[in-house]
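tool=predict chain=A
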Amino acid sequence: MRTPTLPPATHTNVYIIGQGSVAIVDAASPYDDERAALDEAVDALVAAGERVVELVLTHHHVDHVSGATHLARRLGVGVAAHRETAARLKGRVDVTRLYDDGERLEYGPRGFRALFTPGHAPGHLCFVDEASNAVIAGDMVASTGTIIVEPDDGGDMVQYLASLALLRALDARWLLPAHGPPIADANGKLDFYVEHRLKREARVFAALSHEPRTVEELVPPAYPDVSPALYPLAARSLLAHLIKLERDGRALRDHDRWRLS
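tool=predict ok
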């Protein structure tokens, strides 16, 4: 579905899981034409004998939740998410059921398992298909580009790297991301993401000196491969790397400036 997401993505994938009783994951779009298209697809499923039981959210970002209230009201079903997601959606989306790490979603031949994967967002959940070992991965990975970790919106680089390692340990058959087509080489993609983040961390560290500098001043040397037009986006993840380096005892913060420890 076309959504107000960040480049290079322009659309968010909506997954319908199960057979007989089904759930819809990430009813995403705020746009009337996109909502109408999803309504039509869901009506066709219902006419074929499927029963929509609930809507499920991977996390709270606007390009994942903007159609949830409309569709929940239209179908007369509830919305499920992690408690951290529910807290951030209070007043926008009424979450009626909470899923936590390890809980089962009884859809499909063997069901799905919720996997708590914070880092990109505090309440981020992935969903593991126990029959195929495919993983609905939300915004943990994307088919093209990389994922922004934004501290001002609850992003945490330490947690994000830990969640990538958790996904890697699954030895998943497929990753089904929120942005882009399915990823067949799941382990290769996850290894790339970890390698990319560690290389970026090394560049951020190399950009530091004993002279305090702002995040904006650090972006060009830390992101030499990024167009200046994307510097505002790069600054978000750069701050997440700086906070991780601070926790590791390798960087110091002085108000809005950063230097070597």
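The radius of gyration is 19 Å. The chain has two domains: 15-186, 208-261.
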